[in-house]
Write a structure and sequence with these properties.
Radius of gyration: 25 Å
CATH architecture of the largest domain: Alpha-Beta Barrel
CATH topology of the largest domain: TIM Barrel
Strand content: 15-25%
Bound molecules: 3-O-alpha-D-glucopyranosyl-D-fructose
Largest sheet: 8 strands, parallel, barrel
Number of helices: 24
Mean pLDDT: 95
CATH class of the largest domain: Alpha Beta
Number of strands: 23
Distance between the termini: 48 Å
Helix content: 25-40%
Number of domains: 4
């Protein structure tokens, strides 16, 4: 059966919305055949055939069953996307990430905010976890009691169904989390394990004594050393130690047990059937553990992710996977799949290195580390794309290589300390108001929390009534977002940043959140400020309108889609970050970003050679102005961002 005929069948116009069983079966058979060899190889490489033949047959049955259950409307979308190719690489996507409860109360409330997204130009939404979670500490929903059931505080299943339908009608892409590495300690499997059921104890890494935990601890780093030191927790009811790499109430799933994989796949496919377009694989670097290693980025973890991907390819090929791998630069790229797995892991990954380097450029006012890190990163496969972001709900990890810091002539330890001091309010001259997160005195490692606006000086500037500081902060916010919006990938706005929301200190008074300063950058959305937008020349209004304008501009330039190239230009001025987006047919857009608080110049002759300056003039798309080069130099104002079009 050819694709067009399948399309007609799935469209169901002549069939009253139903699809003949024979056509569905043919489609399933085709998809399975296309993926079967690799699927089988991967499965038996993790779970030896000698012991797990039956489980593999169980997997095949599960795929068939889930394929039958996949709603026709989503099957149709799957086909559309297969035909469209890399739909996620379009310049048309602009994302926003938000906590539903903090943004709009619940899912119904979120539906009412659709005009807000439309006005700003947002058409890709990452909703932080919305499924059931413990009523006590739950890591913002990253400790799950269910992978599929909506938490009653957020609404009902119907609310979610209605919302996803609305999103589809409006062309909004929905991304939801799949907390693939761990469940809460209240998850049904954990409850059974605690009750003494050995089968479910085998769903987690549980041990009767410290011998194996101690072995693991020799090489396992700590993720939350301040609040959750160590990687194991003793459960008194179960009388066993259980691996808890994150918080003590987040139990790590044991994927060396194939039943865990099958059960989690079932959860994943059920989640996809709710109308999710992208699933965010949380903490996926940690999926496979092995004593004697740091149990991150292991080859088995990659194979496991590929296995999930291939199963999706059979059942729900329109759904993309986002890698949340906040790991070393050369490790991040591997989540797109490499070697035999290229194109068979995640389609999308957070560009954590880029994000971290942007913050480094803010503190140093220099772009050397940014350029060097990007230049040295292995290239991602052309079918993958990045999520580019300035800030998210988590901390900022200083995720760049010490070797690059050293190559610039800086001492890596001292440089990292400087960054923590700059953002963590230990330098009186720094405009940043942030906090140091999870400082580990033994390693000297620490991360940074705080909202974009507060980290860029808006909070301090407003407190001190320092207009110049406020102005600089606004410029810096638009500078960072303008870079991200012109970079290859999906730009993601962290909710609140569009109106310059400051740090929220209320978490300190809430026992469920105190101790985790990431809550500082998870404020309740300020709808009063939104109400006032445009009525006054407030920082919020300036940031909002600036961002809205940049978003509109981005969508007008197909050269900003991920399929076109990015070339970084070393321009001989350490304060500037200059890159060019180039299409196949001569289109081009040049971005110049000044990270310094002084005006900076570059030699314009090579810009003329590239076609961006003609007869001493150039065109800045951002303010629509045509400017003159003076004495052969192009000048940028402090923290200015230019998008220059080609003549
Ligand atoms: C993720 O982040 C989530 O984004 C966090 O909100 C969760 O707390 C965590 O997983 C546990 O579910 O440690 O500080 O890649 O950087 O996975 C953030 C490694 C985190 C980690 C990342 C994790």
């Amino acid at each position: 059966m050819n694709q067009a005929a399948l399309h007609r069948l799935l469209a169901g116009e002549t069939l009253g919305g139903t699809l003949p069983a024979s056509a569905r079966e043919a489609l399933f058979a085709k998809r399975l055949a296309a993926n079967a060899t690799l699927l089988k190889d991967l499965f038996f490489s993790l779970y030896p055939e000698s012991h797990h033949r039956e489980t593999f047959i169980g997997l095949m049955q599960l795929l068939q069953e889930r394929f039958r259950l996949r709603p026709v409307e989503l099957q149709r979308l799957d086909l559309e996307r297969l035909n469209q190719g890399n739909w996620y690489q379009s310049e048309h996507w602009v994302g926003m990430q938000l906590y539903v409860d903090r943004f709009s109360g619940d899912l119904k409330g979120l539906e009412e905010k659709l005009p807000y997204f439309e006005a700003l130009g947002i058409n890709f939404l990452h909703l932080m976890p919305i499924t059931r979670r413990p009523s006590g500490p739950n890591d913002g929903g990253y400790a799950v009691n269910s992978y599929t059931e909506v938490d009653p505080a957020y609404g009902s299943e119907q609310d979610l169904a209605r919302l996803t339908k609305k999103f589809r009608q409006k062309g909004i892409c929905l991304m939801l989390d799949f907390v693939v590495n761990h469940t809460s300690d209240e998850f049904p499997w954990a409850v059974k394990a605690r009750e003494g059921d050995p089968e479910f104890q085998g769903f987690y890494y549980t041990y009767p004594d410290r011998s194996i935990p101690d072995l693991f601890e020799q090489s396992l780093p700590e993720v939350f050393p301040e609040t959750s030191p160590g990687n194991f927790t003793y459960d008194a009811q179960m009388q066993r130690w259980v691996m808890t790499v994150f918080n003590s109430y987040q139990w790590d799933l044991n994927y060396t047990n194939p039943r865990v994989f099958l059960s989690m796949l079932e959860n994943l496919l059920a989640l996809c059937d709710k109308g999710v377009d992208v699933v965010r694989f949380d903490a996926l670097a940690f999926l496979w553990k092995k004593p004697g290693t740091d149990s991150q980025n292991l080859p088995e973890a990659h194979r496991l992710i590929a296995l999930f991907r291939l199963c999706l390819q059979v059942v729900a090929p329109g759904v993309a996977i986002l890698a949340e791998a906040i790991v070393a630069p050369h490790e991040i790229v591997k989540y797109f799949g490499e070697g035999a797995l290229e194109g068979n892991e995640c389609e999308i990954a957070y560009h954590a290195t880029f994000m971290a380097c942007l913050w480094n450029s803010v503190a140093t006012r220099k772009t050397l580390l940014l350029q060097r890190s990007l230049n040295h990163m292995p290239r991602k496969p052309s079918d993958g794309t990045w999520i580019n972001y300035v800030r998210c709900h988590d901390d900022i990890g200083l995720g760049f290589d010490n070797a690059h810091i050293a190559a610039l002539g800086w001492d890596p330890g001292a440089h990292r300390r400087f960054l923590l001091d700059y953002f963590g309010q230990r330098l009186s001259w720094s405009p940043a108001k942030g906090a140091v997160f999870m400082y580990n005195p033994t390693t000297g490692d620490g991360r940074i929390t705080g909202s974009t606006a507060s980290l860029l000086g808006l909070e301090k500037g407003m407190e001190q009534g320092d207009e110049a500081e406020v102005h600089r902060a606004i410029s810096k916010i638009l500078l960072l977002y303008g870079i991200v919006l012109a970079s290859p990938g999906i730009p993601l706005v962290y909710a609140g940043d569009e109106i310059g929301m400051l740090n929220d200190y209320s978490y300190m008074k809430d026992p469920k959140r105190a101790g985790d300063s990431r809550w500082m950058n998870r404020p309740l959305h300020d709808w009063d400020a939104v109400e006032q937008l445009g009525r006054e020349h407030s920082p919020a209004s300036q940031i909002y309108s600036g961002l809205q304008h940049l978003i509109r501009l981005r969508k007008q330039y197909p050269v900003l889609a991920d399929r076109s190239n990015q070339a970084l230009h070393p321009v001989g001025n350490d304060h500037l970050f200059v890159f060019e987006r180039k299409g196949d047919t001569g289109e081009g857009l040049l971005v110049i970003a000044n990270f310094d608080d002084q005006p900076q110049v570059i030699n314009a002759s090579w810009l003329a050679a590239l076609g961006y300056v003609r007869e001493g003039a150039y065109h800045n798309l951002i303010d629509g102005s045509t400017r003159q080069v003076r004495s052969g130099l192009l000048e940028t104002a402090p923290f200015e961002l230019l998008w220059i079009s080609r003549f």
